[in-house]
Amino acid sequence: MSEAPVSEKGLSRELVGALNELARVKRLLVALDFDGTLAPEVDDPEQARAIPEARAAVLRLLALPNTRVAMVSGRALASLEKVTDLPDTTLLVGSHGIEIRLDEPDDSLNLDSREQQQVQVLNEVLGEVADSFDQVWLEPKPAGFALHTRLATEHNSRVAHLVALSEARAEVEDLKIRTGKNVLEFSVRNTTKGEAVEHLRGYTNADAVFYAGDDVTDEDAFAALAPHDLGLKSGTGDTLAAYRVAGPHQIAQVLALLATYREGGVHEQ
Description:
Blueprint: H1 13-22, E1 28-32, H2 52-62, E2 67-72, H3 77-84, E3 91-94, E4 99-101, H4 113-131, E5 137-141, E6 144-148, H5 154-171, E7 176-180, E8 183-187, H6 193-204, E9 208-213, H7 219-224, E10 230-234, E11 243-245, H8 248-263
Parallel strand pairs: 1-2, 1-9, 2-3, 9-10, 10-11
Antiparallel strand pairs: 3-4, 5-6, 6-8, 7-8
Helix pairs in contact: 1-8, 2-8, 4-5
């Protein structure tokens, strides 16, 4: 493969230097959120796709030796497989770590009878909330549901969230709740993207981790990074990440630059 041109335009000198240093490690794990990071936010989640530049950069990284790429998402695994449409060598983590596809896929999720009953109660409670407001809808997840309010008015969104939180907490004990962009996620099991990153680090025996994400749930992943890792926030908002860029187009630029540095052979093969 011929070396692609290096583009540092618009990136801080500190970020470029950190990428160059990160590219030198022998075994690198590149872990990426999808929505808002590789793909722009869209009204219909199933229509989301990575921008071409981001997809091209991910494919370059996948082709490199000693470099593993993982998608770490709140999406259910089946949805993540569909929207990413990447080679099987890509590691996939769905539902914030509840579902995982590694080199030997094991996508099953076994809920015990108590958890199954809790999911049924959640379905009834949250279904009533979604039916009570225009443009509020419920997405099934492996261990719960996501209440989406992106298309609702600000008033309806706020009230729907308040009612859902109150009713769900009253009916289900030990409920795990995550707040995202125009979405509330309710789960009868608790995992975080930080735990997922730590699992992937061990599985790939990575010497360093690059993680990029845009949402509140990605902060758990940033918190799990070590000083020699690199965290990159996409977009606005408070973050624990050491670096920040504006959005998916800049994320794509960073990934392409990281691929170029590793293609240059600066890391141990």
